[in-house]
Amino acid sequence: MILLSRRIVPLSLCVATLLACTSTATVGDRDDAGGGARDVAATLDAHADTSPVIDVLVARDIVDASEGGDACTATEVCDGVDNDCDGAIDEGFCRIGGACFTNMQRNPANACQQCAPPAGTVSGPTAWSNVAASTECRASTGPCDPAEACVGDGSACPANLLAPAGGRTYTRGASPLTFLDACAAPGSHRVLVAADQAFVAEALPFSFRFFGNAQTVAVLAVNGMVSFSSAVATAAQANSTLPAPTLPDTVFALWDDLETRAPGVCIATLGAAPDRRWVAEWRDAGFCCGAASAAHLDFEVVLTESSHLVDVLYRRLDDPAGRATGNSATVGLQGADAATFDQVSFNVAGAARAGSGLRWTPRPAVVCRPSAGLCDPDETCNGTSAACPADTLSPASLCRPSAGPCDAVERCTASGAACPPDGFAPTASSCSAGLACTGAVCCAPGVTPGPESCNGLDDDCNGVVDDGVTRDCYAGAPGTAGVGACRLGVQACAAGVWGACGGAVLPVPEVCNGVDDNCNGTPDDGIVCP
What we know:
Elements: E1 5-10, H1 11-20, E2 25-27, H2 40-48, E3 53-60, E4 93-96, E5 99-102, E6 106-107, E7 110-115, E8 128-130, E9 136-138, E10 148-149, E11 170-174, E12 189-191, E13 199-210, E14 213-221, E15 225-227, E16 250-255, E17 258-259, E18 264-270, E19 277-287, E20 292-304, E21 310-318, E22 330-334, E23 341-346, E24 357-362, E25 367-369, E26 379-380, E27 395-400, E28 410-413, E29 430-432, E30 435-438, E31 441-443, E32 470-473, E33 489-494, E34 497-498
Antiparallel strand pairs: 1-3, 2-3, 4-5, 6-7, 7-8, 9-10, 11-24, 12-18, 13-14, 14-15, 15-16, 16-22, 17-19, 18-19, 19-20, 20-21, 21-24, 22-23, 25-26, 27-28, 29-30, 30-31, 32-33, 33-34
């Protein structure tokens, strides 16, 4: 027999203990002729007249199936039985829907819930509890596949998403711009004057990326749109919800059945490269066909060069019939397909408000492989794959500009990440009359570029004689410069000749001013101050 525990207990307590455990424990030797447990009562009688306290050897977990009775094991398992005979069933497990789970194990059908721990020694729980927010529930499978995390409310793990391609999606917010007066801007011009159901194509002054694609031509329609597709020419008079499959690549500033008066739509380019803004302003537009002849609408679309921002601004939206603020209009923007769009409103009064504006900002690209040199561009996620795109090198792009007439331009070769070594025109190549190339600069024949000195020559071959050549100067007594009020001056060289000494402070007789005027190291010495 295997004896698992030995206890010394009072007789009265022993009786109660043994009677309670007759189905799971044996006292004494099991190897009797009956092959079973010795009679408990007989054992107690044998010790009754010797001591009120007896040794009880409690044998647990050793009854095998051949001897009958329930088996006690050292470990509880999830089977609906009190395996370890502690009075609790399946503690440490969840039994949900007929399946067993361990405490803190996540629900396989909902990775943001876990098996709730039991309270004390009660039976295993039958419910899930929420996994803490920010707990990873789906690992990344590549540099362009971010891990997903639980949100802490018990909902399922978020859908698996890939890092989006840069500029192919937008975030929308209020525009910080004030209304830009394109009609009054220098160089502006007017299109679609007194028009209805008309459109016009305009070349952009810079390449503009819309949903990640470079655009160089904008098509304007009277009905409140700027598009990068000629499909806008057949735009329906009646607006609709987005996506509008027949109107790809379009900004819907105020898509309604409009007509223009003079001055029509004003086009202007404001600012300087690389931060120019292209503005298309509908000035004093109205609703078509006399439906609201008293309406006066001023709104505009602004495209920004370097940041590729899209702004829609509203200045005047007057209409006695109350239609001007979006009651019958669609506001938003849409890419090349029905999956890429952002609808702000469809037939919602107040969606457009005078003095307000909207801004769409392209989401930045996710760099998954940074540049390793001037000829190795960053690789960015493409929005369709967990893997980073293949490493590419720049072909024939400029990587080092010329630093002078004798310095050649270097371009990438698509064979390495580094820019080729700096190259110069051949020695003695003529770069201007009487001068020849020496490295990157033009020098007189036989002259090697070096530091400038006051000699009337162009020593550094930059085209300027004695440029920036100066020296300290001082006409005071030796040892007085830098003492008291005395200071060094500066001389500049011009055409090989040193100029006058400027800025020097020389010793002067002492006066009663607390300053060492004669620069001997003692202020106000030899004089009596009043």
